[in-house]
Amino acid sequence: MSVAVLRWCIWLLPLSACMACWSPTWAQEQAGATQGHDARAWLLRVHEAALQRNYQGTLVVSNGMQTATSRVQHFADGGQQVERIDWLDGEARSMIRHNDMVHTLWPNAKLAVIEQREPQATFPALFSGGEKRLLEWYELHPLGLDRVAGLPAEVVLLKARDALRFSQRLWAERRTGLLLRADVVAANGQLLESVSFTEVSIGLRSQAEQALAVLRHLPGYRVVRNQALPTGLEQEGWVLTKPPAGFQEVNCARRSLNLVATDQSPIVLQTIFADGLTHISLFIEPFDPKRHQAEAVTTLGATSTLATRRGDHWVTVVGDVPLDTLKKFVQALNRKR
């Protein structure tokens, strides 16, 4: 799930209250889904539904302090993946993804930013790196039936196997497997964030060409192409001596910190780690006393951020994980000698 969106922080009902919506028949049918092939099959079905189904709907992300609403469209047309997200709050902004090319449009500023990105799993896609690896760090427990956006949904809990990560509770549309809602849950039962469709249509005729048409005609727009240089953490002279268990490097690139890069823009090394479900971003840049004046620790919903100095560099690590996990990343990071 993306850490860029806003979350909702409320207290999770005790498990006994959740069981009020339990369907004994479904629970018996899914008794084997807590382990082995059945669990992997359920996760794979949910993940593939997000990639292979055509759908559009309204998505709300909340964290108790703020909410964000967006309009989402997704079309799988042959070998093409086309996605459009229109943010409905704050400054007008749209993101259109065509396979690995991402166009972000800012209508008020007449700005279009084009980037090539390696796709990462974001709602309603579930995981990256394979469902088998995900189950090494999470246990799947069926919780019965519920309804989301007027549609019947199967509910499961992906329970974290250790304190390095949060659990997640998932609602998948019963007929297609499309993920309708996802909650991030702390070890004490606190609901840290919630992302959910409030209305959604599944199985639409593809409108991929219509979604892409706007990119062919951007009158008055300044079009900027941001380049990221693929690399590796060790290739850049860094090593994680003892990284938190389960998190593997999945992407590393040098990129500009600014939305519109210039020759004077600060360059940051961004490395993304994943455990199959959750992503952590590690940013490393040269220390600048004008910009990096104080260490910082913040938590908003499920997302924690830790920024600190490491020798001649400034390190920022962000992720939907407990703060202690981020601290372990910073402690494990060392400059190669």
SSE map:
Blueprint: E1 10-11, H1 15-18, H2 24-29, H3 36-52, E2 55-62, E3 67-77, E4 80-87, E5 93-98, E6 101-106, E7 111-116, H4 131-134, E8 138-148, E9 151-160, E10 167-173, E11 179-185, E12 190-202, H5 208-213, E13 222-226, E14 229-230, E15 238-240, E16 248-256, E17 267-274, E18 279-286, E19 296-300, E20 303-310, E21 313-319, H6 323-332, E22 333-335
Parallel strand pairs: 7-13
Antiparallel strand pairs: 1-12, 2-3, 2-12, 3-4, 4-5, 5-6, 6-7, 8-9, 9-10, 10-11, 11-12, 14-16, 15-22, 16-17, 17-18, 18-21, 19-20, 20-21
Record keyword descriptors for this entry.
337 residues, mainly beta, outer membrane lipoprotein receptor (LolB), chain A, Phosphorylase Kinase, domain 1, 13-stranded mixed sheet, seven-stranded antiparallel sheet, 22 strands
